[in-house]
Design a protein that fits this description.
- The chain is mostly helical.
- The chain has a single domain, classed as MFS general substrate transporter like domains (Growth Hormone, Chain: A).
- Helix content is about 85%, strand content about 0%.
- The protein has 15 helices and no strands.
- The chain has helices at about 1-20, 25-30, 40-55, 55-85, 90-115, 125-150, 155-175, 190-200, 200-230, 235-245, 250-265, 265-290, 295-320, 330-355, 360-380.
- The longest helix is centred in the middle third of the chain and has 31 residues, at about 200-230.
- About 45% of the residues are buried.
- The mean pLDDT is about 85.
């Protein structure tokens, strides 16, 4: 379907814009606040995104998904333009909080578009393709971002990102002009979590997704610091490692999604959690005894993401097989897990690192992934 293909194109462009600026956000904030306070703004944005998601079903019932998406895109463009043109903290910091808080909500809107065009039988194929295509953007864009910044300065990437969002907005408005919203269900937050609590399969998959996002938050924030400050790798070497690491996502997720449609998600989910847990345990302890070097660390990080890519596509496939695009409250609760992970992950890390070491932090993370295996064994095969 033409409209469906344009949603895939739009989500890919959205991933490109995210990958273009994600690795420079901390540096941008660091120009206006102390480095120790940078995480406060990510936390504030995550809290705002949770608040917006909690009322998203009401907004959708009032204006529909196309108009809601357009509003979000216009707000994102405005905030990106402020960041790209202003040099005053009083403008840049609120604009960043607004921009960062919108991203989770935009992904939620894409979920509703994709779920609208999907059927249960091909959910794995569609979700695997969606995730693989989006993650493909993350392999090359950080390098391109570095080239742009070195030539035109750090603010230039935000200006380019605003242009990409403008293109996405145009594509969505033109391609979805005949989109017909379902009669979205409105449930209060307590009813939604009661529904999740009542269905142990949904509850367990949400718990596993939460563990995955804690994993992402801790590794994104602290693995570069560990590799640079403790293992003494240069940022160029770390960039090479991460480039190798991120190739796991586009390589794994499309075939994994197709296999999920054919064989179910449960065993693949257990395998993914086990692989990631084992890889992170190696990441924590092997450097204590052996000098791994760039290749050794890149290999461990790659296999940790092989597991993570598998977990991600299996969680999404299993979850979206069990809901429809009318159930906006349950879908919003599922997407709230991402910002929650970015709130709890740093808090856990700070508590551990204040009393112990990176080795203990990554060991805890491996054990947390191992706990995910327990929840995966409890779910009923789709």
């Amino acid at each position: 379907m033409r409209a469906f293909r344009f949603i895939f194109l739009s989500s890919f462009l959205f991933a490109i814009h995210l990958a273009l600026i994600s690795y420079v956000n901390s540096t941008t904030l660091g120009q206006f606040v102390k480095e120790d306070n940078v995480s406060i703004f990510f936390t504030a944005a995550s809290i705002i995104s949770i608040v917006v998601m909690s009322v998203a079903s009401r907004i959708l019932r009032a204006v529909g998904n196309v108009r809601f998406s357009a509003i979000l895109f216009l707000l994102s463009i405005t905030s990106l333009l402020v960041i790209s043109t202003s040099t005053e903290a009083k403008f840049v910091l609120p604009a960043f909080i607004l921009y960062f808080s919108l991203n989770v909500v935009i992904v939620y809107c894409f979920d509703l578009f994709i779920e609208h065009y999907s059927s249960t039988e091909n959910t794995g194929k569609i979700r695997g393709s969606y995730l693989a295509l989006n993650n493909l953007a993350w392999v090359s864009m950080p390098l391109i971002s570095g080239i742009i910044i070195s030539k035109y300065g750090i603010q230039s990437v935000y200006g380019i990102a605003s242009i990409i969002i403008a293109i996405i907005c145009t594509v969505v408005l033109l391609s979805q002009n005949k989109f017909k919203d379902k009669k979205y269900l409105h449930e209060n937050i307590f009813a939604i979590f009661h529904k999740i609590q009542k269905d142990h399969n949904v509850k367990d998959i949400v718990i596993i997704a939460f563990i995955l996002h804690i994993f992402y938050s801790i590794m994104v924030i602290y693995s570069p610091l560990y590799l640079h400050n403790v293992q003494n790798f240069s940022w160029k070497e770390i960039g090479i490692m991460f480039g190798i690491m991120l190739t796991a996502f586009p390589l794994i997720q499309y075939p994994a999604g197709r296999l999920a449609d054919k064989f179910g998600e449960k065993n693949f989910l257990i395998a993914g959690l086990t692989i990631s847990a084992f890889a992170i345990m190696l990441f924590a302890w092997v450097p204590t005894f052996i000098n791994l070097g760039l290749v050794g660390f890149a290999a461990i990080l790659f296999f940790s993401r092989v597991g993570a890519a598998t977990i991600e596509v299996m969680c999404d496939t299993y979850f979206f097989k069990g809901v429809t695009d009318k159930e906006t409250g349950v879908i919003s609760a599922y997407r709230i897990i991402a910002p929650l992970g970015y709130i709890f992950g740093p808090i856990i890390s700070i508590l551990i690192l204040n009393f112990s070491s990176y080795t203990v932090l990554f060991t805890f993370l491996a054990l947390l992934l191992g706990l995910g295996v327990y929840f995966a064994t409890k779910i009923k095969e789709s």
